[in-house]
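Subject: for your reference before the review

Hello V.,

The reviewers asked for a structural picture of the protein, and I figured it would be easier to keep everything in one thread rather than splitting it across files. Below is the amino acid sequence we used in the manuscript, unchanged from the supplementary table.
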Amino acid sequence: MEKEYNSEEEFLNDYDSSQFEKLSMTVDILVLSVSNEETSNYRKTDKKKMSILLVKRNQYPFKDKWCLPGGFIGIDENLDDAPMRVLKRETNVDNIYLEQLYTFGDTKRDPRMRIVSSAYMALIDKNKLDTSLNTNASWFDVVSIEEKNNLVNIILNNGKETISFTIRKELKEKTTDRYKFVEVENDKIAFDHTIVILSGLERLRNKVEYTDVVFNMMPDLFTLGELQQVYEVILNKKLLDPAFRRIIADKVVKTNKLKTGGGHRPSYLFEYKHK
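And here is what came back from the structure prediction:
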């Protein structure tokens, strides 16, 4: 028979938390950048590229492997306060907007103990950052994302090292088109961060369809060609001009200013239409 209490205070004073197993909570941060890939040919327009911010681990487990910036949440720390603190400590990047991505809780995701992670993500232009990265942090360009027969292969490169991993997508619910991600090949990324990365990339693709998230990394003034490149990099596909114009019709405003130089015809500049 359960003991009866006369007040919540009496219950809490008698409460024994030791009857429950303990788990730890961390945050992992996926920072994505879409920025210019400069060319030495002045007649060619700078192309856009996507990059992911990774950190090389200097201790076990997974010593010398790459991972997303992450760390444990303090016992007296609010959940939404942790990712910015951890990101600053791990990479020296701060003052960027972060939003919660997903909670990852596979029982074998960390060999040390049972750890649940709340992942956060951001989309920025890394060229706008006014701080230098910590020595163990590096931007990896997304060289390719190829999907065939529900196998997704992603190749990253930071100019010194190439990372390749493959994830299998297993359909969980037909009605909602939800997938479970299973790591197939990976030898350079720690924990389950390959799955976090793919989850973030797919979330971002969905968000560009119904939000204005791309304007987080656009300059105040831009050409439609520059904006279209950003959409194409995120969506990983070429967009026909009419389809792209329909997507951004209510998002931008044409100015009376022109972009000139670089061996190209002048192009009108646009700005984000704040709602």
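For the response letter, the relevant points are probably these. The chain has a mean pLDDT of 88. The two ends are 59 Å apart (CA to CA).

Happy to draft the paragraph if you're swamped.

O.
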